[in-house]
Design brief:
Layout: H1 4-22, H2 36-42, H3 45-53, E1 71-75, E2 81-84, E3 88-89, E4 97-98, E5 106-111, E6 118-123, E7 129-134, E8 145-148, E9 153-157
Antiparallel strand pairs: 1-2, 1-9, 3-4, 4-8, 5-6, 6-7, 7-8
Bound molecules: fe (iii) ion.
Length: 162
C-alpha cells in the first residue's frame, strides 16, 4: 500500500493543476461592459467576430499589418491603448506583431481552441479578444511575439494624439 501513496499524491497534484488551468471566469466584470447587441452595433462585422467571439482574421489581410507609422494602437472596442509603434516588428506571420504590449492594459488567458494550450491576449478594459502571445519573438529583445488581429486594433498616429 505504501508505494501507492506517492502515486495518489501525484495524481492529486496533477488534477489540481488541470483544474486551475481550466478555470473559466464567466461574466467577469470589465470596466467597459456592453451587451452582445450593443457590441454588434458599434463594431464592424469583422471586429465584432474577433473581439467578441475570438475569431482570427485571415493572415495578410489586416490593414495595420504593415503599418510603420509612429503612434499608438488602441483597442478597437474601447480605445484603451494596448501597443506602441516602437515595439512593432515584421514577424512575417501576416498579422501585426509586437515584442511587448502595454502590460497594465492586457489580460492573459489560456485557450484550448485548436487542441493545445495557447496564451490568449485580451483587452483588460472590455475583455475583447486581441490575439495570442508566442515565445518565438525577437531574441535580441523580449523573445515574445504578440500576434494581434488588425481588426482588434485602431491606430492613432502620434501627431493626432491629444
Ligand atoms: Fe477594449
Amino acid at each position: 500500500m505504501k508505494k501507492f501513496v506517492p502515486l495518489l499524491l501525484l495524481t492529486f497534484l496533477i488534477s489540481c493543476k488541470g483544474n486551475s488551468q481550466n478555470k473559466e471566469t464567466p461574466n467577469k466584470a470589465y470596466p467597459v461592459s456592453k451587451t452582445d447587441a450593443e457590441w454588434k452595433e458599434i463594431l464592424s462585422p469583422l471586429a465584432y467576430d474577433v473581439l467578441r467571439h475570438a475569431a482570427t482574421e485571415r493572415a495578410f489581410t489586416g490593414p495595420l499589418t504593415y503599418n510603420k507609422k509612429t503612434g499608438v494602437y488602441v483597442c478597437a472596442g474601447c480605445q484603451t491603448p494596448l501597443y506602441e509603434s516602437q515595439y512593432k516588428y515584421d514577424s512575417g506571420s501576416g498579422w501585426p506583431s509586437f515584442d511587448r504590449g502595454i502590460e497594465e492594459h492586457l489580460e492573459y488567458d489560456v485557450d484550448y481552441k485548436i487542441g493545445y494550450p495557447r496564451s490568449e491576449l485580451k483587452c483588460n478594459t472590455c475583455g475583447g479578444h486581441l490575439g495570442h502571445v508566442f515565445n518565438d519573438g525577437p531574441r535580441n529583445t523580449t523573445g515574445k511575439r504578440h500576434c494581434i488581429n488588425s481588426a482588434a486594433l485602431a491606430f492613432i498616429p502620434t501627431d493626432e494624439k491629444k
